[in-house]
Each structure stands twice: as structure tokens, then as C-alpha cells.
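Please check this protein record:
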Amino acid sequence: MDYTTQMDAARKGIHTPEMKEVAENEQMDLDELCSLMAKGQVIIPRNKNHKGIKANGIGSMLRTKINVNLGVSRDCKDLDVEMAKVQSAVDMGAEAIMDLSSFGDTQKFRRKLCSECPAMIGTVPIYDAVVYYHKALKDITAKEWLDVVRMHAKDGVDFMTIHCGINREMAEKFKRNKRLTNIVSRGGSIIFAWMEMTGQENPFYEYFDEILDICKEYDVTLSLGDACRPGSLADASDAAQIGELVTLGELTTRAWEKNVQVMIEGPGHMPMDQIAPNIEIQKPLCHGAPFYVLGPLVTDVAPGYDHITAAIGGAIAAMCGASFLCYVTPAEHLRLPNVEDVKEGIIASRIAAHAADIAKGVKGARDWDDQMSYARKKLDWEEMFRLAIDPEKARKYRAEAAPEKEDTCSMCGNFCAVKNMNRILEGEIVNIYDE
């Protein structure tokens, strides 16, 4: 092999099999894709140890991709249920699975994902360290934190969220600038507590070069975590969030110097009018690296419906330049999602991503919609079901209220504008009442 990472290959003008696969799927010129990757504006997360992965690109001029969070917890520890969620997510078109397991034999589940799942696999090593070492948080050493990063890389993880932007200086800034909801990032709160109890620097920041060496060895993409992402509308765009983003931009250039691929994580909860400005701030601060957002959730008052609040924010964010949407389920803020929650979250995120791709002119994005419109014009129900983002639900809804005539639906019947326009334009008589 004449290259160490996908970024290294791109900078050397080498077209890897993964680049060829992505270019074909995205209808993009291979040299153009290679150029964007060389600049860090497109990434292909693909650990050398992850066999059977389907290559996917994330970044500028590509389709917006979807990530699905799942994993076992102390209260919900059934691995079979989590694998059912994984299969459901893959079947519904999610490009990435993020294992956030925080209980039990986490390595067994992680290795199973990396050996069987064709989607990109992501993890947050800081969660796993707490589980793996079975000791008090304050007693975990800097070396032990980094050893877990290496373990995840060796297991085949394609991208890792590393909370390296919240260093001691940023922690002090956070304490000076009070928030309504403090730090809501699990990883961010863990490393903040560790720094407060030990008085030491964040090891992911202090030993960032060692982390880069690990990522370079296995070609792991760094997802630079936003420990200070806002957990409420009141905290959006505050000093902590923007300050951390500046640090992440600095770390991005250090990663690129070692040919390590990077994406930047973003909010969080945020009013709609702040989403576009946040994306615009991120672009220069982080040098055009792909932006990965959780939502954003555009209101705080919709527990049970946060897949909708997140889809609204995600569509706006992706239209403005975000490349990767982390799904949010109806169970957000309430409990671990079940299989049906996962489905609802994925569908909402896919709608948001697709709508944004149409708005920003991604090549071929609107072809799908035009095909659906043509099927509707022809009243071809089977073709409509085939093209639907959720064919099962579309078919179920029609079956639940079957129409008297197959060429109509139970909403309009003989008043169907589509049917009547087709007839009148073909020179037929339209006689609604007597039909």
C-alpha cells in the first residue's frame, strides 16, 4: 500500500477503491472527489480493520448522510434488541451506526458490529473507559483513556467522537459564563468532572498527537466532539460553544498535518434563526471540514416528538452546509429508543437530509421526487409504494381505508383532480356525480 490513510492517498493523487465507490454512488468526477478529500472537505471513514463496509463519503457537494445512535445501557441491556435496531437502521438506509453502549461486555458488541455491519461504525471511547476499567472516574489515568482509543481503533471502528476541545482553559471559561442547562454532552460532562477532580489537563487535548498516531495507523476518522453543545435554546451560540469551536478548528489543522480525516460536531438545541449563522461561523473556523450536527432541536418543549423538532433543524442545517445528521428519536430526553422509535427517527432524518439535498442542488437529488410525481400523475399506486421513503407505511395507510375504485383514494374518490384532469385532457367526459 502506497498510502497510510484515505486523505494521504488523495493528496498523492491515488484513487482508492473506496473513492471509486463513492464517486460512482454520488455521480461525481473522481478527480474532483479526490481534490475535495485532499483539502479535508470530504471524508471517507473506513477503518482498515472493518471488513465488508460500504464506502460512504461525507462532506461538500455530497448527499447528506444519516447516523443512528444505539447501544446497551444498565437499564436496557439486551444485545439482540440492539442488533435488531442495527438491522432495521441499515435496511432503512442509515449510512452510519454509532455504538454508545455504557454497560456490560461492550467490546463484544462493538466487534460484532465491525465484523457484520456494512454501515460506518462510530464510538465514543470515553464512555467505554468508564465501563472497561470498573473504577472511580477520578482514578482513571491519562494513559488509560488513550489505551481505550487504541482498543476501539484496533477493533475496527471507523470514526470516534473525541472530546478534546474542552481543555482546562475552556472549562474555566465555561464556569465564568453561567448556562441554563450546563453541559449536556455525556462525554463532555465526564471529562469536565475528571479535570475538576484531578486538576489535570484533558488527556485527549494534552496527548492529541498520540491520538493522531493511533488514527493514522488504522485510518480512523476523528469526530471532534462538541462537549459544550447547547442543551437548551437559552444556551445556543454562547461563549462556551463558540470558544470550543475555535479550539476544534486548531486541532483540525494538526490532524490534517498527519493526514488524519476530521469532521466537526455541532449543536444541539438552537433557535431556527441561529442555525445558518452557526454553520457560517463553523466553515472558516474549522477550514471547511465536514459538519456533523445533532438535530439541531429547534424547540425545547416537544418530548415525544423530538424527531420532528430535530428534523426541522437538521433540514435547515444541511441546506446551509452541514454534511452529516445524527438522528433523534421520539424517545429523546425520555428513555432508550426501541425499534419503532429508531425507525421514526431515521425516517424523519432522511426526509430532512433529502429535502436539504434538493435545496442545495446535490446532483440527482430531485430525480427521486420527479419519479414519484410522475407515478402520482399516472395513478400508479404500486410505483408510488416502491418510491416511498417508507413503502410499508404508505401501503398500510392506503389499505386501512380502501377506496371504492382502485384509481382513487378514500380522500377524494370521484373528485380526484388527478384522475379528472387526465380524462379531460385526453378528450373524455368527466361526470363526477354519476360515476
Summary: The beta strands are 42-43, 58-59, 65-70, 96-99, 120-123, 159-162, 221-224, 262-266, 291-294, 324-326. The mean pLDDT is 95.
